Amino acid sequence: MSPPPLAIREQLREQRFNTVWKEELHDVFVDVAPYYDRANHIASFGLWNWFLRNFMSIIELRPGQRVLDVCAGTNAVGIALLQREPSLELHAMDRSAAMQEVGRQRAEDRGLKLASSTIGDVHVLPFPDNHFDVVTLQWASRHLRVRDLFTEIHRVLKPGGRFHHCDMLRPGNPTVEKLYYAYLRGSLAITGLLFGSGSAALGAKKYFIEALEMFYSADELSQVLRELGYRDVISKSLLAGMIGLHRAAKPLAD
């Protein structure tokens, strides 16, 4: 299926998926939290850590910076950042207390401590304007109102601060796209069986494919970032556009 035009993409995404986002995804992540990382290692054929290393490679850090990891999940990004630069003031935010509890334990097991963990709606970030040097977001924007969230991230970034994004995207090549969805249908079924997924996660399998069909390609997401006022936007595609990495800066003066 062809995605809707870029100008109305967000409106149609929200119309189609709003009920899932507001009423169903919470239960999905409660279900998958205990095995989320292990399932993704299997589903990605062992590439999960490679994706993270590629994401880390586009993030520039300085000692003592204040960092916000949005949709932090099990804190994979926060842990990697703190291991690289322990002096960071790192804050995590996620809507799922279950995922953050797993993340808190993972960080604690590695002798790391986050500055804060906030549970709430990431479309309304509870932080002041011009507050963070760096904001990161991985594996979540398919389930969010992208323009609203990216606008909030722009608000809380300091002038000159950088936003780093990584997610599964809609490949620009139609043949790759079809193969991608076929693979995802199979991997979701296999991991659901292996880990004994509950009804919430099993019921969301169709949604996960449909969300990608209506999502953005790497080039389209770059365009959205520029339209929202970000500058110096760069992107990097992995696996023929199945995974996209973006870095963008808040201008020194709007």
From TrEMBL:
One GO biological process term: methylation
Keywords of the record: Menaquinone biosynthesis, Methyltransferase, S-adenosyl-L-methionine, Transferase
CDD domains: AdoMet_MTases
Originating species: Sulfurisoma sediminicola
Entry GO MF terms: methyltransferase activity
Protein name, per record: Demethylmenaquinone methyltransferase
Keyword S-adenosyl-L-methionine: yes
UniProt superkingdom: Bacteria
PROSITE patterns in alphabetical order: SAM_MT_UBIE
